Amino acid sequence: MRLRERVAERETMLLAELERHEIDGFVSRLVEIDLSEAESLRAGITGEWISQCALTLTLPEAPRAFFRYGRFDVLPHAVEQVRAVLGEVEALARTRARHGALPDGYVPKPGDLVRRTDGEVFEVINFTSDGQGVELAGIHQPVTIYVGLGDFRAVFIALETKSLLDL
Hints:
Elements: E1 2-7, E2 10-15, H1 20-31, E3 52-57, E4 65-70, H2 77-95, E5 113-116, E6 121-127, E7 133-138, E8 144-148, H3 152-155, E9 156-160, H4 162-165
Antiparallel strand pairs: 1-2, 3-4, 5-6, 5-9, 6-7, 7-8
């Protein structure tokens, strides 16, 4: 699976491998969605500075469906169902991204440098008082974030070394 994202001129791509039964499960869920009500979908506000989304869906034994909509448009329920399934696919792909990967069994430690899915690098500062979250500080951006331990692998994709950041 290729997950490509583009924000302004910056594009990133993550690669992940999904099992055949996982793909079949997602496809069968998508085939069950009745998209006939979504045929009248019209784009809301448009313009150069308005975020636009395009969704092309090609499923077995079904005509190709194409939807274009604004990020904040109210969508028909069927399109929201499609987006929910695709969101699950995206989350799974991000977790398994082969663009970089956290070592198996990795547990964050203060001082570690980790790369987020958008390419930004953070330093692990400490754990939250309950031990369920991690405090991180941006290396190139002056920001502090907190991420739950259960979500860590979905948010961060690689362990970095200081030597790579000095380039």
